[in-house]
Amino acid sequence: MSDLPPCPACESPYGYEDGHSLVCPECGHEWSLNAEPDESGDQVRDAHGNVLSDGDSVTVIKDLKVKGSSSVVKVGTKVKNIRLVDGDHDIDCKIDGIGAMKLKSMYVKKA
Predict the structure, then answer these.
(1) pTM
(2) What value, to the nearest 5°, has the Cα angle with vertex 7 and ends 6 and 11?
């Protein structure tokens, strides 16, 4: 069996090495093997590692299908005045033409 530590997000024992980081196949969490625990673990980061805060503007970096609808949030869509929340989808926002949505920070970059 491997001697890799369990996932810090979901405690899954099935993590694997991917380059310089470890990846959990169950929840998708990525972490570094020799990284020190982050004291400010409540920070939300975008796809490039920039810290996000309430009121920031972000840009969508991937086409996102809107669940329960045939519409799509296109790459490059700018979202203003985000609000950070706890949970799997950690950004609450309003997108012009679509309305209120929840986004994952892994699909946006800070504008």
Answers:
(1) 0.62
(2) 75
